[in-house]
Amino acid sequence: MPAEAAEALMTALNTLRESIADLRFGLDLPGSDEARQAQAELLAQLEDYVLPRVRTSAAPALIVIAGSTGAGKSTLVNSLAEKNVSRTGVRRPTTGTPVLACHPEDHKWFAEGELLGGLERLDKATPEAGMRSLVIVATEKLPQGVALLDTPDIDSVVEEHHEIAHRMLDAADLWIFVTTAARYADAPAWNLLRLAKERGARLAIVLSRVQQKSADVVLKHFARMLTEYGLGDIDRFVIHEAKVGDGRLPDSEVTDLRMWLAELSVDEGRRAQAVRETLNGVLNSFRTRVPALARHLEAQVAFRAELRGDVEAAFLSALNEIDKSSKNGSLLHGEVLARWQDFTGSGDLMRSLQLRRRGRAAKQAPERVLAFKAAIRTGLESVIVAAANRASEEVVARWRHRSELGAKFGENLDRPSGDLVRHTGRAIASWQEHLSELVRTEGVAKRSVSKLVSFDPDSLALIFMVAMFSGSNGEGVPHRLVNALLGAESLRGIGSKALSDLRARIGMLFDEEAMRYVQALDSAGIPDESVATRLYQATYNLEVAR
């Protein structure tokens, strides 16, 4: 590949890797575990194989020996290497730590190279060596330019063996699949062949332990199955039932396979083609695997959006509820109505007037004014807190109805925060001061309603509140008297501003309450939808670079 093209491909691949690494599937929705596993596999394949292979395209071909339990993978590797590089035995699973056998001239490529760079390199297997290690053994019996990697069983009873086996396969240039005459029709074998087909991997199959007397029947049936599966043209090798000595097969049983490896070694064009086909197959698989990840992320984002929509709907409904209460007169009842009647019936309303002509200020009655003001504040607070309570209960009820996951997010959130009452009291007190300031700045207190009188601003602000909250009918409240004293124009103008300001303050209180639910969702670590968009874009950029 020309240097410029290789650089463009590396840039696109690195961007794709970063985009995949940024994904977070914080919600345990159906399919989320599979999405996390797919993400891990993609990252491992990019870092273990794709990026190193594009950077070092001339590296020796890595051939993974894969198969089911007891298929004889380690025996086959030892036979081809003419050296016991991998442990064999009747105990299953036998291979725990992956073992790589290569020609001494290729040893440096694998000991220091980036292929499978996340695995610790060892010269020999030790009891402490785990699945995250790689034993590298050099032998002159293997041809230069190809290396064999013995992997754990694909159907091992040890779960970790499955993961490392698939990681080895994802990092391979060619696959040699080993199965037996007794087990070639088993599901694990065909699952692996299906995976190889999906990834476009260059593949060869070894059918071992074939009895001479039944060889024709078995081979014909196996060939027919491969053809039906679309794998009829792949390279196939047969190893007959033979005595294993010192962990190795008779040399005659592996001659054909040894020649196949030798041809790959000497024919650089053929080897390069095999590597290129597998690499292209992996890159082609990204066309479906990466968008599938993006769709999982979109499902997470969509579910979070639904839960956030529940929060917004509940608190908007609560705000609209308060709007209705402020316009239909229901706020003026109980203590508020009693204080208003006390304020007007006692004559304090008239004493709040100032007689200009006489130039005397009327004596105020602050006790009743303050009590009336406090009653309005308490009434508003109770309405707001009650609405917030209903909104909190509604959010949690909606979340529970959606799923168990929603119910989990709603735990301990079915009541408003402990600070709501204090914040509400502060907000209403501030709003009352704002209304008094509106009365002053709008000049209502200075304008004469008649030629004789003008109003004290604080008392006038209280009268405005009554007028605003009394509704169109004003049942139980002398609404027409207030309207006559103040004038309809002033009442509409200041009333509209005051109600708008009150709604904004209540909205801010509800926003703070809603943030508790948003924080509960955000704690799951779900990125926004732009991450999925970047993933689609990275996939497109990779296609362009190819």
Automatic annotation (TrEMBL):
Domain annotation Dynamin N-terminal: ranges: 63-208
Signal peptide from the UniProt entry: none
Pfam family name, one: Dynamin_N
Name of the protein described by the UniProt record: Dynamin family protein
UniProt organism field: Nonomuraea insulae
